C-alpha cells in the first residue's frame, strides 16, 4: 500500500514533464548532440533499415551492442528506456505464451526472439538519433534534407508548446480532483481508484483542447506579424537559417568508426558461419 | 496636404468582424503624432484592440470583415500593403504575450522576425533587441524557464527586432506584478524618448498613464470620443466615469474633497477645480499648499489640536483597526489552518531541487481575511497549494481543521477547502457555467442541489449566462463564475490566487465587493495578490512572503508603514496611501473615501479652531 502511494507521488505530472523536456533538450552536451544533424540521418539510414534484412544472430547481437553503446552515449532519460523495456518485455512475454499455447517449442520461439532482437536494434537506433538531437536540430536537419517548412517548424513549435500544454493539463486535472469525489474505498487491486483516475485523465483533455484553440489565435496572428508566411516561399531565408550547419571532423570520425565496426562485425560473423 | 508630423492618420474607419452583426469600429477618425506616447482607454468592448489591429494590417488583411475607411501608417496605405510589410513599421505586443513567443529559446525568438525577413545578421538584430529591452539572461535559455516579467520583455524584444517606428502594447500591467509593470513602462519611456519610437498602449491603469503617457485617446462603442493631452484627459472625470475608467486615486481624492466646494475645508472654494492633480507629486503640492496654511496657523497651539489626529473612529468603523490575532485565536477555538515548519521544493528541468517554501509556520483563525503578498516566485501559490492537499509538505505538517493534509487526498479536503485558480479558464471543466457550479454538489449527490445552484448563480449575477461556456465569457464574467464555483462548494476556507489580475478597474471593484461578502459564507479567506489596493481595502491581516519565507505577518499598518519591507518584497503601496504618508498625516489612509473623510474632518476642526482663535 505504502509503496503504491510512494510510486504515485513519484509519477507526478510534474515529473513526467521534466523527463520529457530533458529527453528533448537536456542532452545538448553529449558527443552525439554536437554532430551535424545530417550525420545521424545518414547513420540511421543504415541502422534503422538494415536490421530488417539481417538474419544472422551474431551480426544482430553485434549491432545491438553498438546501439546500446550509442544509446548510453546519448544519455537518454530513464523514462524512455523504461517504456522501451516495458514494450520489449511484454512482447517477448506474449510471444512465449502464444508459442506455448499453440504447441510450439524452442524452434518457434527462437525466430520470434530474433525478431525481438531486430526490433530492439531499430528502436535503440531511433532513440539514439532522435533523443540526441534537440527538436531545433531535428527540425533544421529535416529542413535541410528537403522536408517542407511547415513540418520542420511544427516540430520545433510543438516542443516549445509542450511544457505549457502539460502544465495546463495538470491544472485541469487538478481542477477535477479539487471538485470531484474519489471512491471511498480503493476496491480490489485499487481497481476503483484506477478507474477514477483514468476517467479524469481522459476527461481533462476536452477542456485542454478548447483552451488551446483559444490560445492559438494569438500565435497565428503573431506568426503573421513576424513574417512567417512572408518567408514561406523564400529560398533565401532557408539558406540563412541553415547557414550554421556544417560537417566537421567529429562527423567524419563518428561515421568512420561506425563503418569500421560494422565491417568488422561482418568479418566476424562470416568466420563463425564457415 | 497630409501633415508630415502625423505617423498615424485614420479616416472614417468602420469594421465588422466576419460573422458578427454589430460593427466594432464605427467611423473612427484619429491622428497620432510622430514620437507621441499614447494611451488608448475605454470600457470593455469599446474597440481598443480592434483599433490597434487596423494599424499593422491584421485588419483588413487577416480579418476579412466589412471594412471601410482609410488608414495611413508611416505614409503607407494599409489597404495597399500586407501585414508583413506593415509589420516592419508597427510592432505589436499582445495581452496574452506568452502565446506570441514562438521559438523555444530566447535569442531564437528575438531573431525570428529578422530571419523571416531575410536579414543575414538576424542574430545580431535579435541581440540588439534584447539589449534594448534590457533582458538580462542567457540567450540560450528556454522560454518556459523565464519569469512572467522576462517573457513580457522578450515579447517586446520580438516586436522591436525589426526596428519599427510604432510600438503597440496591449495592457502591459494586467499580467505583471507592479514592480515589473513599472520596469516595462520605464523601458517604453526610454524607447520613446531616446529611440524616437511612437508608443501606443492600451491601458486601464490611469496611474501609469499619468506618469508615462503624453496623450490619451478615449474610445466608446467603437468611436473615438476625443484625443487629449494626458493631464487634461484625466481631469475629464465625468466622461471617464461613464466609460468605467477610474482616474488616479489622487485625482479622485481631490475631486471628492472638492465636491463639497471646499478643497481646504475652511469654506473657501477651491480656486483650481480644473486643476486636479494627476500624479503623486502634483497631489502632494496640491494638498500641501492648504496643509501649509493649516500648519502655520496651527503653530503654537500644541499637540491637542492636531487636526488629523483624532480620527481613529474612521478606522474602527471600517472594522480594520482591531489588532490581529495572528498566533492565538480570539476565543480559544481551534485554528482553521495550522502550518508547522512546512518545507516544499520542486525539481527543475536541470534536475536540481529548488526550495520554494522553507520552514514556514503559521496559523489561521476564523474571521481571518488574509492577503498573501510578495513578488513573483516568493512562494505564494505553492503555499496555497499545500493547503489544498494537491501537494504535500516534504517536512513539517499542514492541518486543516485538524485534518493532516499529508494523509488526505485533495478530494476529501475539498469538503473544507476551495482553491480558485489565477486563470479562471482552468476551472471550467464542463461546457456550461451551470454544470461547472453543480459539479461538486452533484459528485456528492447533495439533496436538492438545483435550488442551491440557482441561488448562487443569482447572487453572482450569472443567471443569464448559466448555459454559456465559461471559456467564451469576458474576463470579468469568468472571474465571477470562478468565484461562484468556489462558493458552491460551501467551504470553510477559500484560497484565491490573484483574483483581480487581468481585469479592468470597474470589474476589479466588482470582484472586491464580492470578496467582501465572502466572509459571510466562509471562516477564512486567503488571497495571494499583487493588487495593493485590494490589500488595503479588504484584508485584515497581511502576510509578506519573500524567497520562500514569511517575513512579515501582521496588520496592514505594519506592512505599509515599513518602507524597507515594501522595497525588499517588491511591493508598491496604493497611491492614496503614499499621498497620506507624504503629507505627513498621522494615520495612513487606505482608501480614497477614508482620505477625503479625514481631510474634510480635519478641515472642519481647523475651521472651528480658527473661529475660536479669531
TrEMBL record, chain A:
Keywords: Membrane, Transmembrane, Transmembrane helix
Superkingdom field: Bacteria
Main location: membrane
Membrane topology: Multi-pass membrane protein
Localization (cell): Membrane
Keyword Membrane included in the entry's annotation: yes
Keyword Repressor listed: no
Protein name: Cobalt ABC transporter permease
Taxonomic source organism: Paenibacillus vini
TrEMBL record, chain B:
Protein's name in the database: ABC transporter ATP-binding protein
Gene3D superfamilies: P-loop containing nucleotide triphosphate hydrolases
GO MF annotation terms: ATP binding
Swiss-Prot/TrEMBL keywords: ATP-binding, Cell membrane, Membrane, Nucleotide-binding, Translocase, Transport
Subcellular location as annotated: Cell membrane
PROSITE patterns: ABC_TRANSPORTER_1 (PS00211), ABC_TRANSPORTER_2 (PS50893)
Annotated membrane topology: Peripheral membrane protein
One Pfam family linked to the record: ABC_tran
Signal peptide span: none
Amino-acid biosynthesis found in the keyword field: no
SUPFAM superfamilies listed in its UniProt record: P-loop containing nucleoside triphosphate hydrolases (SSF52540)
Domain of life: Bacteria
Record-linked PANTHER family: ENERGY-COUPLING FACTOR TRANSPORTER ATP-BINDING PROTEIN ECFA1, HEAVY METAL TRANSPORTER
Family according to the record: Belongs to the ABC transporter superfamily.
Keyword Nucleotide-binding: yes
Organism: Paenibacillus vini
CDD domains: ABC_cobalt_CbiO_domain1 (cd03225)
Positions of the ABC transporter domain: 8-246, 337-572
